Amino acid sequence: xxxxTAAPSQAYLDALKVLDRYKTEGVTRAESDDFIKGAINELDxxxxxxxxxxxxxxxxxxxxxxxxxxxxxxxxxxxxEFGSDFPSLNxxxxxxxxxxxxxxxxxxxxxxxxxxxxSVLQRFDQVFLDMVxxxxxxxxxxxVITEFGAFANExxxxxxxxxxxxxxxxxxIEDFVVRFDAYIEKTSAELQAQAxxxxxxxxxxxxxxxxxxSAIKDATVALLDSAEAAETMVGVVGIAVxxxxxxxxxxxxxxxxxxxxxxxxxxEDVNSKQExxxxxxSEFDGLRPDIALICAKLxxxxxxxxxxxxxxxxxxxxxxxxxxxxxxxxxxxxIELARKLCKPLIDGLNKYTEQLVNHPAR
Length: 362
Known about the structure:
10 helices, 84% helix, 0% strand
């Protein structure tokens, strides 16, 4: 019986109403100020959890990397054992090796981009945003506007390459998995049909051998006549006098025993193929949500420079308003939030880079 869906909480329903108001009326400045102050308070009280959460992405990345390797080994084993029976498996293996190489390349790029962003964020915080607090004169303001402009125009576009790479890989893998699932389903159905047919054949041969055993016993007893007490010993020894009914029956039994053995080996082979396909499908089923999650997270990493650049341009435009803007409470709040966000991002990206560097290369 399916689990009943929990009714939405009143708090959730109230939140949806507020969200609807945001969409139609916008957010009041007081609400926005309160949110920024709340975010700053959370960052002030942070004990390293935000950085740990960011660094956790490296753990997911390593798990996905290991999953790629398991899938390659699984497919390789299938091709080695059953490639002659299923030529398409070799095509899937070749395609997956290509995805694996792309993953390795993009993962290495993500490590380099994360390291680059640590430097970018440190400069954003300790150089450019720090300048704002030192503005005393209008010339200072003009100098900071110029510095902000130069910083915003820097080239850190490898992040876009990384973002596109992961998203394209995610799309290609999703397409691959759909095709591979269809192949597995079709092949598994064919194997199941073979297994069912072989099982019926085995049962039929077993029954036939049992009938022949009974007939051989009856023939042996009849031919021994008064010496029928020796039937068991004759049967164990396997004596078959040429030209007798017994010889014909024993020969027929041998033919069916050989056929039975062949059918049983065929069934074992079919079962082995089914187990191999089921195992590799399980690996793909586990990898599919992981690759979607990690790609989404790494795409967010790629957008850090875009966020820094947009904030830099925003602060530059605010300073263009005039010297009084330096003491504007809202402006100071936004600067403070930007600076406090840099630390967990820097620490988290450092953790990400460190764990990937320490992860053994494949």
